[in-house]
Amino acid sequence: MKIFLSLCLSLLLLSSCSKWLAVKPQSQVSSQQLFSTQTGFEEAMNGVYSRCSQQGEYGDELSFGFLDVLAQNYTIPSGDYQGYLQTSNYNYTDINFVSRKDTVWSGLYNAIANCNLILANIEQGKKFLSSVDYGIIKGEALAM
Q: Which DSSP string corresponds to the chain?
């Protein structure tokens, strides 16, 4: 009886459920699946716009933050609670400057990569996109 129980327990523990371990997160979609419908192309383009509107890009730093400080549009107080004082002094080795610069560039390169992915798949979209929608999506991706 002990041998039978240990054998069953061993088989149960050593067996695997491949479906159980291969769960795909709902927020991730393959590019093949994403670019198989008009909605997929529109969602991809919305994702690019959403990425660019974040705080590290046009939502803050490239609209009224980082660039305006470099252009000397603000007088930075000595308290410098936002960490722009060294940027206004053109200290390009300051940790706040480096961090903001890296955030801006990585965010913009991410948007460019996503636009390139849209453009790489837009030709297959001719099957189901109207000529107007095809032109709009392609034009927006090229413009971004």
A: -HHHHHHHHHHHHH---HHHH-PPPTT---HHHHTTSHHHHHHHHHHHHHHHTSTTTTTTTTTTSHHHHHTT-SPPPTT-TTS-HHHHTT-TTSHHHHHHHHHHHHHHHHHHHHHHHHHHHGGGGGGTS-HHHHHHHHHHHHH-
